[in-house]
Amino acid sequence: MPRPKGSKNRKSTEFVDTVENIDEKIAATESAIATLTEELKARKAELKELTKAKARAEEYAAEKKAEEEKTKLMDAIAASGKSVDEIIQMLKPE
Fold first, then answer.
1. Rounded distance between C-alpha atoms, residue 56 and residue 62, angstroms
2. I want to staple 82 with a disulfide (CB 3.0 to 4.6 A). Which of 16, 66, 67, 86 is the partner?
3. Domains in the chain: boundaries
4. Which parts of 5-93 fold into alpha helices (H)?
């Protein structure tokens, strides 16, 4: 029985080169993944620190605002000329 037209018995080096290229690409991709994983860990740590710093800054701002309001209230009390007992009596619900 004759061979189909166009078929030949030859060895293809194309697949060997392709397999080697694929191995190189796999190694490069794995290396890139490792690098990106390390960068991701660093970025997550940086984000965590920034989040903590933001929370501390917000807490400090809230404390400072409360202190300013307390100072304003004390100044208003002093300017009113009333005693502390008189002010407490005004604030009590009847």
1. 10
2. 86
3. 14-91
4. 14-80, 84-91
CB atoms within 10 A of CB 82: 13
The model's pLDDT over 72-91, given as tens digits with 9 standing for 90+, comes to 988 888 888 888 788 888 88
pLDDT for 33: 98
d(CA 21, CA 94): 88
DSSP classification of residue 3: P
Cβ-in-10-Å burial (0-12, 13-18, 19+) of 87 comes to middle
6 membership: H or E segment, kind and range: none
Regarding predicted confidence, which is higher, 66 or 82?
66
Q: What is the mean predicted confidence (pLDDT) over 67-72? A: 94
How many angstroms separate the first and last alpha carbons of the chain? Answer: 116
Q: Which residues contact 77 (CB under 8 A, 6 or more apart)?
A: 84, 87
C-beta separation of 35 from 27 below 8 A: no
